[in-house]
Amino acid sequence: MRNLPITAVALLTVFLLLPLPSHASPAKHLPAISEAYRESAVRMLATGCPYATWAAQGRHFLEFDPAGDGQAVEVLGDLTRAHRVAILVPGVDTTLADFDRGLGGVPRRAPGVQARALYQQLAKRSTDTAVIAWLGYDPPNGIGWDAATEGRARTGARALTTFVRDLLAQRPDVDVTLIGHSYGSMVVGLAAKRLPEVSDVIALGSPGMGVGKAADLGGARVWTALAPHDWIRRIPQVRLFGIGLGKRPSSAGFGATALPTGGVAGHDYYLVPGSATLRSVTDIVLSGGLGHDAPGDVS
Questions:
Q1: Which end of the chain is more exposed for a tag (fewer CB within 10 A), N or C?
Q2: pTM for this entry
């Protein structure tokens, strides 16, 4: 084996050693999920570092595309057995290059890091959960025209709707929670309208969700967190001729339940370990409810 090119060795590693879920059963959904993991790993190895390293580490990706700003969909936990699945959708300026390192090299901004923080909390309390870091769309670059309009969000919402429907087709028994951070909450909001199967929708640091009230989000329970020092508060709540993202879900009259924000220092801190919001999101994914520190309805 030492005479094989390093790429060939890496490919053998993926196909022979890439860990599949430890409690995998011969259920009909297993082949599609495991095959997606392997296909993504092959593409990651072909792309080179750091993605080849992620594949060699045994990380599981349902989708991987390095073209343009790049896209990736990572799974933490055993998706073939989980009964509760949280899907985390990031916002503006998130690219494949930032998936693990975070925008500006700040890890707390990275969807991969945020997903791991949530999964670690879930795994302490349950063995049948999974978290998906879903960068399955092309977020706006910077706070400009694209970030002030719904175009990118609508494209992302179509992709997210397809993804969730495909997941439910393979795993119809799972409870799905959609979590959108910043502009990602707009993607989640537009998708939730077409996904009545979703149990809960959570908007973190949201500038708007593309709807005027929680009742428009497909029947899911709707939760929101907006910290006192989040700069999103300075964005005007307007929507006129396709410009603006509309009413924030944290606004009075929207009908969402407010989550506690203790320990949330700003826009990128909602899922930082130790924050009250992370604890509450964990509660929601596990049970659809909150612990004792919930501040209550903002409707």
A1: N
A2: 0.87
